[in-house]
Write a structure and sequence with these properties.
The protein has helices at 7-17, 47-60, 70-77, 90-98, 145-153, 187-197, 208-215, 232-240, 275-305, 312-321, 329-349, 352-372, 378-391, 397-417, 419-435, and strands at residues 24-31, 34-41, 84-87, 102-106, 112-115, 161-168, 174-181, 227-229, 244-248, 254-257, 437-438, 441-442. By secondary structure, it is an alpha+beta fold. A hairpin with a 2-residue loop joins strand 1 and strand 2. The longest helix is centred in the middle third of the chain and has 31 residues, at 275-305.
Amino acid sequence: MKISKQLDVNIRELEKQFTDCSDIIHRPLVAAGRTVYVVYVDSLIDRDLVEGEFLKNMMYGVDRIPDTNVFDFIQKQVITTADTKAADTIWDAVLEVLSGNTALFISGCSQALIISSRKYPGRGVQSAESEVSVRGPKDSFTESMRINTLLVRRRIRDTRLKTIQKKIGVRSQTDITIMYMEGIARPEIVRDIRERLDSFEIDGIFDSGEFEQLTETDKYSPFPQFQSTERPDKAASAALEGRVIVIVDNSPMVLLLPTTLNCFFQASDDYYNRWGIVCFVRILRYGAALIAMGLPAFYIAIACFHPEMLPTSLELSFAAAREGVPFPLPVEVLLLELAFELLREAGIRLPGPMGSALGIVGGLIIGQAAVEANIVSPIVVIIVALTALSSFTIPNEGFASAFRLVKFYLILLASFLGIYGFVLGLLTVLIHLASLKSFGIPYLMPYVAVKADDNEDLQDGILRKPLTGLKKRPIFAQKSQRIRYRAKGEKDVFK
């Protein structure tokens, strides 16, 4: 419905829209001989701005409101904030009010003045919890989208850092911001994510995880096609590499796209420490990923189907450890793995220190009791503990969860087919990874199609060169903007 010049018509429509909404404040006022109507949501506005400044100036600081250029007059004479705009329909005004802004209706005007007055309650900037930093910034994203965009702009002070804001959710009207570096990010990737945003409708979105599931291409893959992070420095670094940042309001995790397998093994600390220790740590992460995915299945395949591959002394040790255990080895491994997954899930749900204490104490008690009762063998406890420890070394929790699922898949194959099933399972996982793409970028880059980027991305793969050797951006960036580091006197490459 269009906003009418008759204020009574607008008031009736607003009262109809906000029926049984006790938190909506309606304030009819008389200012300079003209009737005005103010609508806002209680506790979502900046009271000092709306009630202490704007309304006070409207009632006592204005002698006359002109018939023409009303909004310009109010902006110059009444209110000091510059963030104002006009709404032409009742519905647009209602959406702005529900977003925390203030709507002003004036008799004789066919538009409503929208004053930016948002002041959401929320927590301040705190240290990151899931991505702990030893060296580097300690701040993390919050549930406020404006604060999140600010944290990125604080690090990239460049006008070419662009932000595109959209609303998703028919009822939630959730704000989503797309941030990217103009000239570095590939235009086709920005266009692709905008098309995906416009390709669906849903009641509401309340977290970036929902957005990720709605926009990913391979919906049945256990491996994430978006990288999530709660660290602003990591998001800013990704933007300078040519990647796109997606910020969802009310979510403390932002999404980075495109992504590759290698990105999930990289931590922000890797670029704040010297290259030697970084190379060592990355080798540990890749090895830990293999252990987290395949160690239990490999043990089952060797111990049950191919014991001749083991040294005699080790085989006898395994047999002695399993003496008296009533379950077959695959059942024994599955029981202990499921018990540990229960402990992990319970530890996450319990509050604060109690959760971590439960994981440690519960694991020790259950493991020791199970060994003493001859339900499981000590070697299986060691295998499961190593598997769990290795899964925690992967920097990204969503990516580590994929290995938790693949682990059970390999255990089942190894239980029926031995080493052949184990190798077959690894091959199917590898084939699946090779078929995945994230916004047109192969998931296994830079280990496949190395000629596409002149082998440059291998310099920041399993091994990392010193920072002075990382002269080119990853394959995410445009070809004309691949160079990012130069010595003084060289050709300017930052245009």
